[in-house]
Amino acid sequence: LKGNGALSCFLPEMDAIYFEGQRLRADLRQALRDKQLTVVYQPMYLPDGSAVESCEALVRWTHPQKGPIAPNIFVPLAEDMGIVSEISRYVMDQACRDCASWPEPVAVSVNLSVHDLRSADVVGWVTEALEEHKLPAQRLHVEVTESFFMDDPAAVCTILERLRSIGVTISIDDFGTGFSSLSYLDSLPLDIVKIDRAFVRDIGMQSKRMKLLRGIVQLTRELGLTVVLEGVETKQQLALINKYGLADVIQGYVFSAPVSPTELVTLLSENSVRKEAVGGAG
Ligand code: C2E
Ligand code: MG
Ligand code: MG
Ligand code: MG
């Protein structure tokens, strides 16, 4: 599989996996051409569940033969193929268009790949999407993961600063799962920290996990950043989080799974929405 001179033993299954992978790559290119990708939205709520604050755009791919393929599979594949920015631009465009029809000031949160942040073009296409759909930048959040650390933090920082200067809110996604270096929290232009669901999963009243979570939340707030907890699934987790006041915003199945754009419009018309924007540079 790799021409690196390592001891190679060809198993028929390896060939099969290889060809399957090549096939999926070709299919993904086709999917981009044929617009097989769609976007769903997961609402994020105030901790008491009383209002929707923002919604995360999540890309979906239904393969014509294989059915739904998880973004955890095809997004890394697109990154490897060097075409992930095509996905990002597509999702950004849909997200800005959809958000412009939601009640104010509900924001949309779009995931960017670290590859998008390698080129200053991103500032251009984000601006284009905002202008085309007449969405104020204050209603756009972008999510980036800690993996930028494997890249060039200084270059990423410059691009994030430019996005922020036009009014876009910057979130750090899956916080605590990457390199987990705390040093960038005060040096990067950030507004929101989305703490990974790994920190929420096993919280019990006296657990070490709970102590860890409380520590991270306190630190984040000391730095003036908004705290989002991801992956809150149960009423018990929610009760503990609220008992200790650990979240500004909550995302998870306990309130809502990701829904289609149409379902979201219904959901937003039935729910109240947060009156003031959370976080944000603007
Ligand atoms: P993420 O950005 O951290 O998104 C949150 C993921 O957690 C979503 O999975 C969501 O459906 C799932 N989730 C939400 N609430 C819960 C919960 O209560 N419990 C559990 N167990 N899971 C929950 P999804 O949609 O499969 O996306 C997986 C990852 O794929 C995303 O993680 C993100 O890293 C990536 N991704 C999704 N859409 C995009 C996109 O448009 N662009 C890029 N670059 N990456 C994307
Ligand atoms: Mg995300
Ligand atoms: Mg996340
Ligand atoms: Mg904002």
TrEMBL record:
It comes from the Bacteria. Residues 21-272 form the EAL domain. This is Diguanylate cyclase (GGDEF)-like protein. It comes from Pseudorhizobium tarimense. The chain holds residues 475 to 756 of 756 of the full protein.
